[in-house]
Amino acid sequence: MCGIVGYVGNRECADILVDGLKRLEYRGYDSAGIAVFQNGKIKVAKSKGKLVDLEQKMESGEKPHGICGIGHTRWATHGEPSDINSHPHGNKRVTIVHNGIIENYKQIKDFLIAQGYGFESETDTETVAKLLDYYYDGNPIETISKMIDKVNGSYALGILFRDYPDTIYAVRKESPLIIGLGENENFIASDVTPILKHTRKYYLLEHDEIAIINQTGVKVCTTEGEEIEKEEHIADWDIDAAEKGGYEHFMLKEINEQPTAIRTTISPRIQNDLPYLEESGLTFEMLKNYKRLFVVACGTAMHAGLVGKYVIEKLARVEVIVDIASEFRYRNPIISEDDLVILVSQSGETADTIAALKLAKERGATTLAIVNVKGSTIAREADLVIYTHAGPEISVASTKAYSVQLSIMYLLAFELAYAKGAITEERCKELTKQLIDIPEKLSEVLVLKERCQFIASRLVNSESLLYIGRGLDYALSMEGSLKLKEISYIHSESYAAGELKHGTISLVTEDMPVVAVATQSDLLEKTISNVKEVKARGAKVSIICPEDVEIGKDVANHLIKLPKMEDILMPMLAAVPMQYIAYYTAVLKGCDVDQPRNLAKSVTVE
Ligand code: F6R
Questions:
Q1: Ordered domains of the chain (ranges, CATH)
Q2: Dist. CA 123–CA 100, nearest whole Å
Q3: Which of 279, 301, 267, 231 lies closest to 384, judged by CA?
């Protein structure tokens, strides 16, 4: 949440900063701002609203000119979205941009007020800016070190000191920050997407390392000022992957990228027709020994874990406990050294998932991260890591990241089942082969968009919706429901189909459409009975099912038929129509699909 960028080089930087912020806007879009050294002075332009509002403001004469500056796009935590609360914050001597939360900001603010400081905004960030000013004695490193000692919480900071008009200082704790290494120019950014246009080389800044960045070089040192040798990384994301590429929205592009994302994710993990996860450090021997698995994650990533639970338990007969990370961390979970705790996260920076990871490690479990962003906190702190190769996911609503998370869950389930002796090598190969076929099958599903668009046109005026299913379909329906409410703002709930009659069915009227997922043949009749129950109460029903299932018009108003695969793999296909339905409903409602209200990608606060 919140994105920060910085540029120092020999080019005018305002436009470079704004361009970088556009690529980070998914991290928050309540306000935006930049600060640039102009004739030795720090000049700030900032505005409530999205980057376009800042751009308009700059066009009307407020654009700072210079070659060294920092920028910020905000997801409001302390203080409402407003011009005053927008970053950068500070004064003429010290100006900062910040991503994170300062937990003891009230205490610091009271202290600074007692020293005669005044405050303009309601933000926690302004207290850090003023604290830096209070400590400033001409030596930025010492000043930043004193600030680190005093401040509790998380931060990635880009800092400008008036006395050093050709330098950006940066420091981080928990919130992510990378340093882009260009030719005669250098950058800071919350992730690699803003720098890809300029360079692929970067450093990862570690906790409480201080970076001094100017045109000719980057120095990273400890709080004592000792220089640290940094490892250079090369970003492997394609710049085109962070562009819309002709699609109206990133979400639509990312839905359509799923076949490629899955192929790229699974192919390096298959050897001799069998799953091969050893590059992550997860060996066949280790898999034999785990007594239980936990999957801990948030939102869509947690839903991927729920599908994983069904698949793993069915194939490997190993117990899987799925937990929402924000619950797991406070419920004193019973974990032992024989457990494998799997943390699933697209961003690798979700605060609650990071806390869950730390807890699992403290309790002695082996931790495995399934993460999309290379070098992210979760990837670095877990014992083992499997990267999904979805490429950058820009739309706030997750689609391709979910599919690749599922694909890893399947590989893990197959290998675990084989390692535990629950399935034969032949069966393991057969399942793996079916997974390899998924991208091709998905291409057949992607052409169903008009059907989904039509269904969306029937849902768009509803106030509330139900998604129902049983077993794997129930796990899937949770994701379908989340996607819809997240971007179309239509209330929706997912329900275990068999549970409806224990209360919730009283909500069902002709104004409450129902989307039923019915891909599991052993549960089909049961699910259809539940569909009939809601239909009898007036609900208009859309059913997502395999192509060989016959369902009469008396049962479903609308059908989406999917290519037939073995039941256990059907979720990989059924996710797509639900993503499309959510997407087209939001488009028809005129919603901001890629940047839904109140949300941000990469939830770095509790
Ligand atoms: C919904 C969505 C969120 C994320 C959740 C976890 O479309 O994207 O529910 O799945 O915030 O984020 P990560 O995967 O980055 O940990």
A1: 3-235 (3.60.20.10), 241-436 (3.40.50.10490), 446-606 (3.40.50.10490)
A2: 11
A3: 279
Which residues, 6+ apart, have CB-to-CB distance to 595 below 8 Å? 25, 26, 29, 50, 396
pLDDT at 1 over 80: no
Spell out the residues 6+ positions from residue 276 whose beta carbon is closer than 8 angstroms to its own: 269, 270, 415
- Which of 253, 483, 535, 601 is the catalytic position? 601
601 is catalytic: yes
Residue 2 is a catalytic residue: yes
Ligand 1 contacts CB of residue 603 (under 6 A): yes
Q: How far is the CA of 396 from the centre of ligand 1 (A)?
A: 8
Q: How far is residue 512's CA from residue 533's CA, in Å, rounded to a whole number?
A: 13
Contact yes or no for 403/443 (Cβ under 8 A): no
Alpha carbon of 479 to those of 164, 262, 312, 465: distances in Å? 50, 18, 19, 13
Q: Which two tokens stand for residue 257?
A: 């990228």
The overall pTM is greater than 0.70: yes
pLDDT of amino acid 475: 98
Q: Does the Cβ of 345 fall within 6 Å of ligand 1?
A: yes
Proportion of the chain above pLDDT 90, given as a percent = 93
Does the beta carbon of 397 sit less than 6 angstroms from any atom of ligand 1? yes
Residue 338 pLDDT class (50, 70, 90 cuts)? very high
Cα separation, 489 vs 491, whole angstroms: 6
Residue 321 has pLDDT above 90, yes or no: yes
Q: What pLDDT does residue 240 have?
A: 78
Provide the mean pLDDT of the chain: 95
Q: Which CA distances in Å does 75 have to 30, 85, 383?
A: 5, 11, 31
Task: Kindly calculate the radius of gyration of the chain based on its CA atoms and give it in whole angstroms.
Answer: 25
When pLDDT is cut at 50, 70 and 90, the band that residue 593 belongs to is very high
Q: Which string of DSSP letters, residue by residue, matches 499-539?
A: GGGGTGGGG-STTS-EEEE---GGGHHHHHHHHHHHHTTT-
pLDDT in tens, 182-207: 999 999 999 999 999 999 999 999 99
221 membership: H or E segment, kind and range: strand 218-221
The DSSP code for 548 is T
